[in-house]
Design a protein that fits this description.
- The chain is an alpha+beta fold.
- β5 and β6 form a beta hairpin.
- Helix content is 67%, strand content 8%.
């Protein structure tokens, strides 16, 4: 019986590996598990995060609920109002609130608590945060000129809120981070110099190839939605063309040469104006319906 017992014991024991192989095996298993987990996580994210942009029908990746998004926007806007001086009264502040509410009525957003604030800032800019929080810098009023020009700006920002661009951008960043983890794990056994070079190239590629183009997509989509919403609110959409032409003239006067469009988060003025001209027929039809209502 002894030979059989001895044979059984020998088969039950794991084979003895050289020290270098055992060390490699210990390193490889966690990396393999991490790679599998990251890949599974990314697949789940893509599966559950699919959404569709209103009006345009564009496919989106959004990983947070409207309620979560609105809560984040409220916190950020509250902090911004504490840190940045605002203009609470006067004809300009009143006009911004009046025009903003008029546009918001034709652009329903879940969990939105619309707020339109005029900030004391000479920089010609406006911005929107999730949940219906819109800020306008006083410096842009020199370019808007008219109430319809202001409606162009506010409707554009409302378009960002309606299409949930803030949540989409955050979701894209999370997705790219997951891809970065997978790439890093896959390259873990490469030489440190080669691995670092590839990861740096991945970072640049992600920025230029995904995040910047998506930002331009967001801007053009907000232009399209803004044109529709200002028309539905009773503002002549042709005024949007006039505003962007004034903005283009302002940029040229400032002598600000823009970077190539593929490295810019915003589309170049010429392209933006051309896109708006192409969208005018639909917007003018919306404007005609609003005028006859």
């Amino acid at each position: 019986m002894r030979p059989c017992q001895r044979q059984f014991r020998l088969q039950a024991q794991p084979p003895t590996l050289p020290p270098t192989q055992r060390k490699t095996q210990r390193k490889t298993r966690p990396r393999t598990l991490l790679w599998c987990f990251s890949a599974a996580l990314l697949a789940t994210v893509v599966a559950v995060g699919c959404a569709t942009a209103p009006e345009t029908g564009r496919s989106q990746l959004i990983l947070m609920s409207p309620a979560q998004e609105a809560e984040m926007g409220l916190k950020a806007f509250t902090q911004l109002k504490r840190e940045k001086p605002s203009i609470k009264s006067g004809k300009n502040a009143d006009m911004i609130r009046r025009v903003g509410r008029r546009i918001a009525k034709v652009a329903p957003v879940e969990y939105a608590d619309w707020e339109f604030v005029l900030f004391e800032d000479d920089t010609p800019n406006a911005f929107a945060l999730p949940g219906g929080k819109v800020g306008v810098n006083s410096g842009i009023l020199e370019i808007t000129k008219t109430e319809a020009g202001l409606a162009t700006v506010l409707a554009h920002e409302v378009g960002h809120v309606v299409a949930r661009h803030g949540a989409e951008r955050a979701s894209q960043t999370l997705g790219l981070q997951a891809l970065g983890v997978i790439a890093d794990v896959a390259l873990a056994q490469n030489a440190p110099g080669a691995r670092q070079g590839v990861m740096q190239a991945y970072g640049i590629g992600a920025q230029v190839g995904v995040l910047l183009p998506y930002s331009r997509v967001h801007e053009l989509e907000a232009d399209e939605l803004g044109l529709v919403y200002m028309a539905r609110a009773g503002y002549d959409p042709r005024e949007a063309i006039a505003f962007w032409e004034r903005f283009q003239a302002y940029n040229r006067k400032q002598g600000g040469g823009k970077p190539p469009e593929f490295l810019s988060t915003h589309p170049l003025d010429d392209r933006r104006i051309a896109e708006l001209r192409a969208l005018l027929p639909r917007a003018q039809a919306e404007y005609a319906r609003a005028s006859n209502a």
